[in-house]
Amino acid sequence: MQSLSKILFNGHFYLGNNQWAENIGISKEGSIVLDTASFSGPRIDMRSRYIYPAFEDAHNHPARRSRTLQEVDLRGQSLTWPEVKIILQEKIAQTPAGQWVVCHGWNQAWGSVTQQDVNELSHDHGIFIIHISYHGALVNKKGLDLLAAAGLRCNTRDGVLHEDIFEQAENITAPNTQTYIDLIRRYQERLVRKGLGAVHDLYVANMAQVEAYHELEHSGKLLLDTPIYVGTQLLQQGQRLQPFVRPAARAPIVGLKLFIDGTIGTRTAAFHDSYCDVANKGMVRLTKESCKEYIKKAADLGLTHIAMHCIGDEGIDRAVDWFQEFQSEFGSAITTWRFEHFEMPTPHAIEALAQHGGIASMQPNFLWDAVHYQQAVGDRVKNINPFQSLIQAGVPIIFGSDDVPTGPLEGLAWTCAQAPYPNQALTVEQAFAFYTSEPARIVKADHRGRIAPGYDANLVVLDTNIFSGNAADLTTAEVSQTWIRGEKVWDSPSAH
């Protein structure tokens, strides 16, 4: 009798299409075996729990967000500015003069915070307060002096940095390679607790992050397969970047990220009509010509994916129109065109993606912020994330979180049980595929995303049947365990 690494029994293993198995085997290579009758091996009782293919977050930022583990992270907390000041003052007291104090999570709940407010916190430290959207920041005067000393002169009267300048400042304040090695590993440990078996890093911005990923993979410490999309600034590295474009790697650089517009939160997402609360229509960050030049450089490096960040209807229309032109020009060199967020698409944009094979990479967990979006865009909020319209048109969809917040279960709950408008509501079966098999498919990882023979034994164990039709089973589901290639990498203490 042949031997397996282990046999998992007494479970409910989801095979898709309402099909379930009571047990599975795991080979010594970490792949799934369904027919275990002729095999022996150690047996593990799954205690009648529900086991699904592990989730794949198609849009996250493990490298970029990992720094929150050592900096002030106030995201997801309901705080006033006086409360934030106390937290920052404590961090400043622990930080040597002349160094940076970086805070994450600036949002409108803090009220009208100005550069003068931040200046009063310290004249000896650079203070860099990052907006929750990661498309802007507030910097004190000392911080501007430190940025200038590093070669970045910011043309700002109020200390607010947006988009390109913000990204450059973010890199200047960022950790080094050795620090990132530790932080990315720790951040991925947090991701597996959410049931993730793979993650797409949609904006690697500097060589320290690239080198950290390479070292983690080389040392065997990379927990999750992580396809990487780099920012345009890394194209300047040329030959230095080339060795990391390795299709067979666990953390390969596969594509280029282009920012066509900004975000609704910073009022920089580009719209055909003005915002409701400010007199502007947002901004288009790139020209067609600059996009074309960046894509050519990416193709010359061997990158085959293009991911276009586009949120407002104007930004999306620009991205889609350029895509249709570029697709024929770059032919087989660029095989995958992704549209990140794609929050407020026009009928024209939806039809173009359906006809030309563009992929909508969306974040259902953004629906929690609809009340704030309504202040910015008024009745247009009903047009955000029109999942049903895309499905009916035949547009391929993949789901990610953008770390706002990370957690596929949160995204599933929002779109399947708590969607504010009918066009945003999906069945659990639809949304589940967008979080598992579909992200794996578009990065050509045909060994992930299903419980099927030969697939990687990447599994998430939940305490409920999320396909039961009972909304409470979905909204209250918790991750008990996560398995990667047949090894248990997370075991919740609360599950025992």
UniProtKB/TrEMBL annotation:
Domain spans labelled Amidohydrolase: 44-489
Any matching Pfam family: Amidohydro_3
UniProt superkingdom: Bacteria
Annotated coiled-coil segments of the chain: none
InterPro entries in UniProt: Amidohydro_3 (IPR013108), Metal-dep_hydrolase_composite (IPR011059), Metal_Hydrolase (IPR032466)
GO molecular function ontology, one term from the record: hydrolase activity, acting on carbon-nitrogen (but not peptide) bonds
Gene3D superfamilies: 3.10.310.70, Metal-dependent hydrolases (3.20.20.140), Urease, subunit C, domain 1 (2.30.40.10)
Name of the protein in its database record: Amidohydrolase 3 domain-containing protein
